[in-house]
Amino acid sequence: MLSLVKAKGNKSNHLFRQVARDTTGETYNPPEESEVVFAYEYILETGKKVLIGAASYTIALPTQTDPNEENYNHFLSFLFIKGHWQGLGYGKWLLNFIESDMMKTVRRPIHVESAIGSVEFFIKQGYTYSGRYTDCVCSGSPLFKTLCYMTKEPIITFCNNLNI
Ligand SMILES: CC(C)(COP(=O)(O)OP(=O)(O)OC[C@H]1O[C@@H](n2cnc3c(N)ncnc32)[C@H](O)[C@@H]1OP(=O)(O)O)[C@@H](O)C(=O)NCCC(=O)NCCS
């Protein structure tokens, strides 16, 4: 059974770096002041929980009204599922949790700079790829050498208020 644990602040950074290293071979820190969530799976045979993934994201500022300002949008900075656990639905699950957390605060677009190899994953989760990408010369991991800008628009729910 998957469990998700939210953390904030520098205390969780070492754990985040560990997941980043196990997943990509490189060390990444979550951006300052970002939300961090860790994914654990319970192993029946051992009775223990193992850390299988992590993500970091920044929630849009509800008081920001200018769409051109960076903090108008939600931003997913990192999403990692360790190799052994990939392809089992955990990434989708973790992303759903993050999106709900974002939309609870304010309904705004979500931006992500996806690794080129994960573009298809994000398309399956409703993100669109604008064709804009950047080659990151400073990236230690080949995984993040080319980053593709992707966006997911918030789902608008209509409320039919029928005052009959
Ligand atoms: C990208 C990542 C988070 C996906 O997590 P995951 O647990 O492997 O993905 P899921 O099992 O939840 O996959 C959900 C769907 O996306 C598809 N998918 C996942 N990764 C894919 C990929 N790289 N290319 C194409 N499709 C992919 C799955 O087949 C599945 O499809 P389905 O719903 O039709 O069955 C994970 O592979 C990872 O950590 N990769 C390395 C780091 C990275 O690139 N992170 C993203 C940018 S920060």
Automatic annotation (TrEMBL):
One of the Pfam families matching this protein, by short name: Acetyltransf_10
Single GO MF descriptor: acyltransferase activity, transferring groups other than amino-acyl groups
InterPro entries (alphabetical): Acyl_CoA_acyltransferase, GNAT_dom
Recorded superkingdom: Eukaryota
Stated name of the protein: Uncharacterized protein
Organism: Owenia fusiformis (Polychaete worm)
